[in-house]
Amino acid sequence: MSTPAALATPRFNSLGQFLRELYRRSKILTTTGWIHIVLLAGMLVAAPFDSRLVLGINPWIKPIKFAISITTYVWTVAWFLEYLRLPRGVKGIISWGISISMLVEIVCIAAQAARGTTSHYNVSTPLDSSIFSIMGIMIALNSVLALALLICFFTGRYDVPSPYLWGIRSGLVIFLMASGIGGMMIARGSHSVGVSDGGPGLPIVNWSTKGGDLRAAHFLGLHALQVLAIVAFLISGRRNWTIRQKTACVLALSGAYALLIALLYLQAIHGLPIMRV
After folding, report:
1. What share of the chain is helix, strand, coil (3-state, %, to 5)?
2. What is the pLDDT of residues 33-78, one digit of tens each?
3. What does the buried/exposed string (b/e) look like for 108-145 if buried means 16 or more CB atoms within 10 Å of the residue's CB?
4. Is this model's pTM higher than 0.90 or not?
């Protein structure tokens, strides 16, 4: 592993410089993110003119949230791939696999929104069941590729200092745990516990205010990928700490984040809302 020079994240004077660097790291994943942003813009335009409700909210709210989340995810993976000394073909497989799975996912969610129905857990007709099955296959594919990334960051060659590396590793571990919570929701056919899906919820996220909602732990777990990497990068830059101190701090914060996810999961599975309104 390289020395502190491996922190190797350039300083950017503008958003344009950052986006050009992102594109250099992975053209495939960066382009996938831009496609989602274009879809996001279209859905933001369509939403105010759609008076329909799906589970009590505008049908475009869900695909809008997914478009934002997926863009963040694919650009994060694009950033991380630069640190792995893998053959170009292997990086290509990971990039194309994640890109295809995420593009199919957003198309399915948006198509169901356009039809005025739910995308997840919807098996009410053969078409709905087929769409949901396709989504499940895509998420499974993405999870396998995320696991491959985790294995590479544990066993492969990389160009990252130890504290930052542990932030990436921890984020990937928690991301996969959150994917497991997603699998549980699929098995249950619902994200709510103790109440039906679609009841009163918190603004924007719409997490239930009447019963348990597994989406809170799922969401925060998925975005550990960004949170812990950013925190670890900032800690890695501290000049007055030793490598051991920085690594210990990153691991402690990662453990605290994982504990928060576990507490949110236990709260939800017992039918308790994050906030009762």
Report:
1. 70, 5, 25
2. 999 999 999 999 999 999 999 988 999 999 999 999 999 999 999 9
3. bbbebbebebbbbebeeeeebeebbeebeebbebbbeb
4. yes
